[in-house]
Write a structure and sequence with these properties.
- The complex is a heterotrimer of chains A (289), B (263) and C (368).
- Chain A has 289 residues and is mainly alpha-helical.
- Chain A has helices at residues 2-41, 59-66, 68-101, 107-115, 122-133, 138-145, 159-181, 187-195, 200-228, 232-238, 245-255, 259-288; strands spanning 45-46, 52-53.
- Chain A has a two-stranded antiparallel ribbon with strand order 1-2.
- The longest helix of chain A has 40 residues, at 2-41.
- Chain B is mainly alpha-helical and 263 residues long.
- Chain B has 13 helices and no strands.
- In chain C, helix 3 (109-119) packs across helix 4 and helix 4 (124-137) crosses helix 5 (153-165).
- Chain C has two domains: 5-93 and 169-249, Rossmann fold (3-Layer(aba) Sandwich); 253-364, RNA polymerase II/Efflux pump adaptor protein, barrel-sandwich hybrid domain (OB fold (Dihydrolipoamide Acetyltransferase, E2P)), CATH 2.40.50.
- With 368 residues, chain C is of the alpha+beta class.
- Chain C has a six-stranded mixed sheet with strand order 6-7-8-3-9-10, sandwiched between helices. In chain C, strands 13-12-11-14-20 form a five-stranded antiparallel sheet, with no helix packed on it. A five-stranded antiparallel sheet of chain C has the order 15-19-16-17-18, with no helix packed on it.
- Chain C has helices at 5-17, 59-67, 109-119, 124-137, 153-165, 183-200, 211-217, 235-240, 245-250; strands at residues 19-30, 33-44, 48-52, 74-79, 82-83, 94-97, 171-175, 203-208, 220-225, 228-233, 255-261, 266-268, 271-273, 285-289, 295-297, 307-318, 323-329, 332-338, 350-355, 361-364.
- Helices cover 26% and strands 33% of the residues of chain C.
- Chain C has nine helices and 20 strands.
- Classes of the chains: A mainly alpha (289), B mainly alpha (263), C alpha+beta (368).
- Chains in contact: A-B, A-C, B-C.
- The B-C interface holds B 1-3 and C 28, 30, 35, 61, 64, 69-71.
Chain lengths: 289, 263, 368
């Protein structure tokens, strides 16, 4: 009996390691190793012929930072992600508040409906936006049919279309983040504010909004990161006329087959997102204090 | 008793639902158009794009590859992820917290970066545009996902149940098979469903490591939509949406969808 | 209870003359369910009234309708003769103390109390002065910079009270405000609220399921049951002369015995029994007594004009401040409460139970 007891922890540990080993090996091979490779690749050089030359230099980064186009793309990416995230927030907030408050017996069905687009392929939804916003799409058909415009309005293959499509693709994530954070929102507090003389809009500004700030911060952060790295939506709705970090990384890697440049730009994007997230977190922390 | 959401909030929510669901709704509508291109209103309605779909070789090849790939990825992810999650949540593995952090790390990285890294790692091994390469690529996403979901599932199982079974004389293997596994069924169903869907819909990683030899359905769809916008892709979308709805209903029966999506 | 009855009668007359808050056949339905049915009530200026009843009787719904948080399905609410039924909550000037206190967690104590003054456009220095005054009223000076989560339950309760009082509301509404406090704190707060209410002379409506709270705090009690008001009266009347079987059972302890009707009158355990109160028409009747209104006497004691029932002592139960004597009688088991002082009949002794016809209440038996 005592012998078995002494033996147990060791056997338990070995079993545990045996259970975990396949996952360790697999993720080591398909995650850790490739990511290390990506980091190494950024320090290789590209010859004048376009062929890659193994090296350990900062030449790729240098040319990346010397190119004014990098700054322009960075600005495009940050600004577009910011606007799309803001749009997603403004749209998702009332819907999440509605789902939080409703007494409807269809509440769980309505919640599923709000996040259901997540389960539909992104390509399908982008195609839907093309059908809505295209020159011969639903909106232009309605505009011209009602005589408001004579020519189709350019709604897609530009920054506007990408922002709209991106915002819609972020909304389910935003709704989930907001709903999770709305648990803190006590309806009695809003009612108390009303009995103290605050009209509905003042109740919203002074009680509802401040109490949901943590949820907003979290949702905004999550969606901004997703927006910065989104590729399919800008690619298809941008139609080659919208230049973002994500589209540039892909073009470097596939179209130009310039791996060091793609790797350097990818690392640059990662660091940029990390810095922006850290700055945002620091700002909100100071605002709360 | 409290009053509900109020008419103004209800109206705002309805408007947002329109924006949220418009792209999917318009796709379903377009699929039944009789025209050769997208036009509103369509000159007529027909099922001809659904018939054309079966004849489109590239899309059909992509579909069968994606289905096979998703199946392989699902089985592989469960086979590798579930034991690891069990070890982290239930067995006393050293440094369980650090291991979990390592396993979940890929979920924090953009798929764009993961795809690029995979391209650079798999190309020299001649694994790009192969079933093996694509399956490995997708598992970067699905294995961490399964581990996250199953760690939660195993951690929320009541501690005493396994101990009780063991005290009744069941061997560890029988405890796992007769007690732990049945209790984990909803989590397993959710993991399988989401692994399959994640792999089937995965686009960015596939774009990096697909090629003419092996190209998944989302990659073929991106190529098609880049080239032209006719109702063919809409018809395909309807087929996919209906299939997804069907799977959702099945999973809802087993696990409860709100829980699956919420986690 | 310390007020003489004459003063109460005077107050009732006052109520009829000048009502401060009037509910006129107020009702609330949720689909098929009726939460509140035809509640009518008038409250005089400075009066405090309790809505007493078990959970789900509609008392909180009534309070929320008065505050404007719920729209009534029918009926009207008047404040000083002005119909406010359609006035939104934020223009009603009601001080509402929530069961959970509903303090704003992101604001300091001072900001919580000052909230209503901000909404009324009160200037900064005036606001600060009134906030300080309100906080000293509830003895919370020096805590104005704290956040609600840094306060104890009793302190949170005081902040909620100060927040509701500082706006000088027409009516103060308290929703189960003491139920989240432990027993000792509850007793202390009860006295404090009563003193504050009396000294400010503020018209107050309490919602409570705790009869002690209702009996000690209020000038009048409205006992509610299944959405209806069963009886409105001062505490003494509610206790001594309950108007219905429900009120008698809900407020205070009672002895319930089956009683029969004969040609000569009522019969209890084979003996005639008298009551000074009307007897309902129903065939099946029950007799209600307060245990402390029954006197224990020797087996052969003459009752005179009083009612008498013979029995045998079964056991004693000592409950600290009183002694409960269980007596088996022809009519059933009866609990008698005595102070426990003096000679007490021992188990097995034959005794008489004696009580006055004016303490004898008869109600129709509840449907089985």
């Amino acid at each position: 009996m005592s012998g078995r007891q002494r033996e147990q922890p060791l056997r338990g540990r070995l079993t545990g390691l045996a259970l975990i080993a396949p996952a360790l090996v697999l993720l080591g091979a398909i995650y850790l190793w490739p990511m290390l490779g990506l980091g190494r690749m950024a320090f290789n050089e590209t010859g004048s012929t376009g062929a890659m030359a193994p090296a350990l230099s900062l030449a790729t980064f240098r040319s990346l930072f010397e190119d004014p186009f990098t700054l322009e793309t960075t600005w495009n990416s940050v600004w577009l992600s910011f606007v799309a995230t803001l749009l997603a927030l403004v749209l998702a907030y009332p819907l999440a508040l509605f789902l939080h408050r409703t007494q409807s017996r269809f509440r769980s069905l309505l919640t599923v409906l709000a996040v259901a687009p997540m389960l539909v392929s992104g390509v399908v939804r982008v195609f839907g936006w093309l059908a809505l916003l295209g020159d011969r799409g639903l909106i232009n058909a309605a505009l011209m049919g009602s005589g408001l415009t004579a020519q189709p309005t350019r709604l897609v293959y530009n920054y506007f279309g990408v922002t709209l499509g991106l915002a819609e693709s972020l909304m389910p994530y935003m709704i989930l983040a907001l709903l999770a954070g709305f648990g803190r929102l006590d309806r009695a507090c809003e009612e108390a504010a009303a009995t103290l003389g605050a009209p509905p809009w003042r109740v919203f500004l002074r009680v509802t909004l401040p109490l949901t700030v943590p949820a907003i911060v979290l949702g905004f952060l999550l969606c901004f990161v997703l927006a910065m790295s989104a590729y399919i939506t800008p690619k298809l709705l941008g139609g080659g006329r919208v230049f973002l970090l994500a589209t540039e990384i892909f073009d470097h890697a596939i179209t130009n087959a310039n791996w060091p440049a793609a790797a350097a730009l990818a690392l640059y994007t990662l660091v940029l997102v990390l810095l922006l997230v850290a700055a945002y977190a620091a700002l909100t922390r100071r605002a709360e204090a | 008793m409290r009053e509900g959401a109020g008419p103004w909030l209800g109206a705002a929510a309805a408007l947002v639902y329109v924006v949220l669901l418009a792209p999917v709704a318009v796709v379903v509508f377009i699929a039944f158009s009789a025209d050769s291109f997208i036009v509103f209103p369509p000159s007529g309605y027909s099922l001809r794009w659904f018939q054309r779909l079966w004849a489109h070789e590239a899309l059909m090849r992509g579909l069968s590859l994606s289905l096979m790939l998703a199946g392989i990825v699902t089985i592989g992810s469960l086979a590798i992820g579930v034991p690891a999650a069990y070890a982290i949540a239930r067995a006393k593995v050293p440094a369980a917290g650090a291991l979990k952090a390592f396993f979940l790390a890929p979920l924090l990285l953009p798929t764009l970066v993961l795809g690029l890294a995979l391209l650079m790692a798999l190309q020299p091994l001649r694994l790009t545009a192969t079933l093996t390469g694509l399956a490995l690529g997708h598992m970067v996403m699905t294995v961490p996902f399964v581990i996250r979901l199953m760690v939660t599932t195993f951690a929320t199982l009541p501690d005493e149940v396994e101990a009780a079974a063991a005290s009744l004389g069941a061997t560890p293997w029988r405890v796992f098979r007769r007690v732990t596994l049945p209790l984990a069924i909803p989590g397993l169903a959710a993991s399988a469903f989401l692994s399959f869907l994640l792999s089937f819909d995965e686009t960015v990683i596939s774009l990096f490591i697909s090629g003419p030899r092996a190209s998944t359905l989302p990659v073929e769809m991106v190529r098609y939509v880049e080239g032209r916008t006719d109702p063919l892709v809409a018809a395909l979308s309807v087929v996919l949406i209906v299939a997804t709805l069907f799977v959702i209903l099945v999973v809802e029966r087993i696990a409860g969808l709100a829980r699956v999506v919420g986690r | 209870m310390e007020q003489p009855l004459a003063a109460r009668n005077h107050q009732c007359a006052l109520t009829r003359r000048m009502s401060h808050l009037t509910l006129n056949r107020l009702s609330k339905r949720y689909g098929e369910t009726v939460a509140v049915a035809d509640v009518s009530l008038s409250v005089a200026r400075g009066e405090s009234v309790a809505l007493l009843g078990p959970s789900g009787c509609g008392k909180t719904t009534t309070l929320r309708m008065i505050a404007g948080l719920i729209q009534p399905s029918a009926g009207a609410i008047e404040v000083l003769g002005v119909d406010v039924t359609q006035v939104p909550a934020h223009r009603r000037n009601m001080g509402y103390v929530f069961q959970s206190y509903a303090l704003f967690p992101h604001m300091s104590v001072a900001a919580n109390v000052g909230f209503g003054l901000d909404e009324r456009g009160v200037g900064r220095s005036e606001r600060d002065r009134r906030v300080a005054a309100a906080l000293s009223q509830v003895r919370l000076e020096g805590l104005s910079a704290r956040k609600p989560r840094e306060l104890s339950g009793g302190q949170q309760q005081r902040v909620a009270l100060a927040r509701a009082l500082v706006i000088e509301p027409d009516v103060l509404l308290l929703d189960e405000s003491l139920s989240n406090l432990d027993a000792r704190l509850r007793d202390a707060m009860r006295l404090e609220i009563r003193d504050l209410q009396r000294s400010l002379g503020i018209t107050t409506l309490f919602v409570t399921h705790d009869q002690t709270e209702a009996l000690t705090l209020c000038d009048r009690i409205a006992v509610m049951h299944a959405g209806r008001v069963e009886q409105i009266a001062d505490p003494v009347t509610i206790y001594e002369r309950p108007a219905s079987r429900f009120v008698a059972e809900f407020v205070g302890r009672s002895v319930v015995l089956p009683v029969e009707r004969s040609e000569a009158g009522l019969v209890l355990g084979g003996r005639p029994v008298r009551t000074a109160h009307p007897v309902p028409e129903s065939r099946a009747l029950e007799l209600f007594l307060r245990p402390q209104r029954i006197a224990l006497a020797g087996p052969e004691t003459e009752a005179g004009a009083h009612n008498r029932l013979g029995g045998v002592v079964r056991s004693h139960v000592f409950v600290g401040d009183r002694l409960e004597v269980l007596v088996d009688t022809q009519a059933g088991r009866v609990t008698v409460e005595t102070s426990g002082a003096g000679a007490v009949a021992q188990p097995g002794d034959a005794v008489s139970l004696i009580w006055s016809p004016s303490d004898t209440l008869v109600f129709a038996r509840a449907a089985p």
